[in-house]
Amino acid sequence: MNKGLLIVVSAPSGCGKGTMLKEILKDNRYYYSVSDTTREPRPNEIDGIHYNFLSKEKFQSKIDQDGMLEYAEYCENYYGTPKKPVEENLNLGKHVILEIEVQGAMRVKQVRPDAKFIFIAPPSIEELERRLLKRDTETMEVIQERVSKAKIELTYSNQYDYIIVNDELKKAIKDFKSIVRACELEVR
Amino acid sequence: MNKGLLIVVSAPSGCGKGTMLKEILKDNRYYYSVSDTTREPRPNEIDGIHYNFLSKEKFQSKIDQDGMLEYAEYCENYYGTPKKPVEENLNLGKHVILEIEVQGAMRVKQVRPDAKFIFIAPPSIEELERRLLKRDTETMEVIQERVSKAKIELTYSNQYDYIIVNDELKKAIKDFKSIVRACELEVR
C-alpha cells in the first residue's frame, strides 16, 4: 500500500476553509490532525476534537522526545502538531491534513518538504472583508485586525505548492480534490 | 492572462491514449501539437492533421533557424515538434499537448523542464497484450513487437511527473483533467 499524503492547508480567517475541510473530511481516506496545546480549553471545546489539551510538563516532554512535528509558543502557551498520529495515519495510507497558520506551515516545510502545501485564498481582500462583516459575529475592530492579518498571510501564499481561490465553495472543493488526485498520480 | 501549460503525453501502443486525447481535445482550452516529418504521407494521412509533411530542405532549414523544440532522425527521415505553434498557443493561454514517444519526451525535458510529463500506462503487460489481440488488426509478430516495446517504454515512466493507469477510460480522463487542474493551481 502507498503511504498517504501529508497535506498542509492554510487560509486567512473568512476564506471558507472550515466549510471546505468539513466537506472533504467526509471522505474517510483523510485524517485530520488534531493539534496539541497547553492553553485552557474554552467552554465549547472538546479534548481530542478541537485540540489535545496537555499540561506544560507533558508538552515539554513530547518536545524532548522528538514527539512534535512542529510547535511554537504563543501568549505563554505551546501549540504544536504531534508526530505520532501523523506518521501512523500516513503509514495506513491515509491523507493527513494539517490545518495550520502560515508560520506553522513554514515550520512543517523545513522538516517535511515532501508535504503538499495548499493555500486557500479569498477572491479579494474586499470580498474577505464583506464575508467577515456578513458573519456579524465580531466587532469592527476584530474584523479590521483579521483583514490586516490576511494581507500578511497572503504574502506567504507563494511559498505554498498550490493556491485555491475560494470564490465558489463547490468549485474550491473540486479543486482541492483535483490537487490531491494529481498528487496521488505523481511519480514519487 | 496566464500562459498555458506544456503537457507531454506518452504511452505504449494499446494504452488507449488516442481515445483519451480525443475526448480531452473536445475542450478548446487545449491545442494539439502536430509534428513535422519528412516522410511520405500514407494514403489516409492529411497534411496539417496527422503530420505537417515537409521536404528535407525545409525541415533542415527549420532546424538551422532554431525552429524545432525537439527532433530526431528515424529510418532516414526527420520527425520533430515545431516550436512556433507551441509557443504561440501557450501565449494564448492554451494548454499545448505534445503526444510523443519516450525518447522525444526526454528530449523535450532537456529544453523544457517546466513542461508537465504524463505517462499513460496499461494496468499490466498482460492486459496490454489482451487489448492488442482484441483489436485484431495486427499480426502476432507485430503484437509481440509492441509488447516488447511497451516493456522498454514502461522503464521510462518514472522519468515522468505523473503516471495514469488506464484501467477504465472515464477514470483515466478524469485523472488527466485533475492533473491539469492541479497544475493550473500550482504556484509558478
Question: Can you describe what's shown?
Answer:
- Two copies of one chain form a homodimer.
- With about 190 residues, chain A is α/β, with parallel strands linked by helices.
- The first copy, chain A, is built from seven helices and nine strands, in the order βαβββαββαβαβααβα.
- In chain A, the strands form two sheets. A five-stranded parallel sheet of chain A has the order 2-7-1-8-9, sandwiched between helices. Chain A has a four-stranded mixed sheet with strand order 4-3-6-5.
- In chain A, helix 1 (about 15-25) packs across helix 7 (about 170-185) and helix 5 packs antiparallel against helix 6.
- The radius of gyration of chain A is 17 Å and the shape is globular.
- The mean pLDDT of chain A is about 95.
- The interface between A and B is medium-sized, with 19 and 19 residues.
Strand content of chain A: 15-25%
What oligomeric arrangement do these chains adopt? homodimer
Order of helices and strands of chain A: EHEEEHEEHEHEHHEH
Low-confidence stretches of chain A: none
Strand order of the largest sheet of chain A: 2-7-1-8-9
Label the overall shape of chain A: globular
Task: State the total count of DSSP E strands of chain A.
Answer: 9
Helix content of chain A: 40-55%
Mean pLDDT, all residues of chain A: 94
Which two chains form the greatest contact, residue counts included? A-B, 19 and 19 residues
Termini separation of chain A (Å)? Answer: 14 Å
